[in-house]
Amino acid sequence: MAYSFSVANTPATGAVAIYLLISTMVTAGWTKVMDSDGTTYSSAGTQVTSGGAGAGGLANSKAWVRMRAPTVNGGSVVNQQREITFQRNTANNTQWRVKYSASAGFTGGSPSATVTPSSTDEIFLFGDGTDAVPTFGAGGWFTTDGNYRWHIACGGSAEFYSFVAFALTSGGTTGGCAIALDVMQSGTYSALDVDPAVMYFSSAHGNPNAGIGEIATSEFKNLTSANPCQGRAWYGPTSALGGSVVGNSRGITMCGWGNQAIGGGGTAAANPWTTNDDLLPALYGIRTNAVFAITGGGAKGFSTLFRFGSVNRTNLDTCDTVATKDKIFFGTMWLPWNGSVPVA
Amino acid sequence: MAYIYSVNNAPATGAVAVYQLIAQLVAAGWIKKMDSDGTVYSATGVQVTSGASGSGGLGNNSAWIRIQAPALNNGATVNQTREFTFQRGTSDLLWRIKYSSTAGFTGGAPAATVTSSSTDEVFMAGGGTDAAPTFYSWFQTNATYRWHMITGGAAEFYSFIAFATGTAALAGTQFNAIFVDSLTAGSFPAANDIDPAVVYVSTAAGTLFEIVSSALPTVNITNPALARAWLGATSAAGAAITGTNSQNVKCIAYGSSSIGFGSQSPAGVNPWTRRDDLFPVVYACKTAAGPKGIKGFSTLFQMGSVYRDYQATLDVVTVRDRIFIGTLWLPWSGARPKY
Fold this sequence. Notes:
By secondary structure, chain A is mainly beta. Chain A has 1 helix and 22 strands.
């Protein structure tokens, strides 16, 4: 299955935006396994039916959903199922607590109306604390309610259920918050990899190229970002790290090509034969801080979601690769797009 | 057919080295179409039979060879047959090398001391005219280097590379090199690109192939041409540096000039396998004048996630089937590299 899209949305609140995301994920094959509207917990994931407030809504204090991706194989984990929990803050729609499980699943803990389940391999993408006493990302993730457009692309089996959602300030092209699960392209990672994917949770809104754009850099780095985690990938056996940045869950970026061409501030050029932009693969990796160190970093694999371009375009420019307007430019990268004319 | 190798050679002269390359290309399927030992010209390429001096040798003043690759159909040109001419100057160090992507060296007035011409020829080294050629001092002093040749077959689109490395006190030093790197299928617009390849002739110093950079070339280099590719319709560009679609290209590194693959800071071995990862290499041009952009991905080269010692080897599919030169990994024969 190809990508499922929901773009140019103008959600009234962050809760509506998250509900749009999980609805699109469900369309792409994900399952809402458990949920709670903050008052009533459902172990079957049938309680939350909207992004609104009140019964059945996600816009309530500590309301939460647990999402599970369809089974994939390719890494070392047989029938791997990735999971994510989203929990809303007590008082507003901008602050969230988001956890990721690579394969163990959120089957532990004591899930209830205001308590998310736990996993033996959970990491925090945003927020912190404990399930019983959660804390939510300080400073918020979403900008002011109703002040942004929200774009979602969720891949199917051919994209290993990768997805990306990102916000842009309404009326402009300024980047806002973003989240992505980018499963590596087949053949670009080791079969020993327990989770051939990068989870991404953006830093706060406001930077022109923030959001998904910040994961592309001119070099591989050794990030230790937490809360939000930004790019994160497993570089060894999984464990229950929570919000820790110590261990095998490592901060990761993708590396542009050169310092003046693709993926950077400059430009190579359109293809001399076709006069179209060339889109090239984007490689994730980590380097150690020690120059000439051999271990402790390394490459993760090539992105499924993103491409670098041979020309540095303007945010929201589109291009036609296989279909009309099937890629959109944001930051320094090309993302999947649904063919529509982008609306600022 | 896979790569065939002739490595760790210690040719006595540059002429012997070039003749070894010609013989290796013939073994890979190329055809010696014309030649001359500097005294006797053969329109069927049967006169030069060694790299030595004297009758039948390439080690003579103005001796030359025209060689043609088997036909390919991976670009826009039907039955494309690439050609080179190699002409020796007044010493074994001096050479004049021309490349024709398609038209072939069928013109001019070939004779004992005169190479043939092509309507799409590009000077890779040397200059002048066929009647009054000038030469480039390409080889190092005789017998101070080892000469390694790797020639691909149909599966590699007849890509090849030959390069010299220093011996004895010069061990670990890169010298001259030549290659044709036919681009990986799918990495270029097959319906449009009339010559999906990069052709390279190094300086005498070589400088680790001079083709990897975080900054793309913005001006053309001549004599030697270094890495060249057609980014538009062919013409008889000769040694021209302006008004031509034959443009200098480079492999652009992953990351900026100081960090990342292709430079001197490592990303590291794969966290799961603890082995080096090898990644594709893309050629591009950013010239200020003339066509520019992405050419395509290399068939010969890969970049590695670790910066290794010069002439380190790696086992990918078989033992020592890659060698590290400069910042790139090349196909290798399995032999232990000799200095």
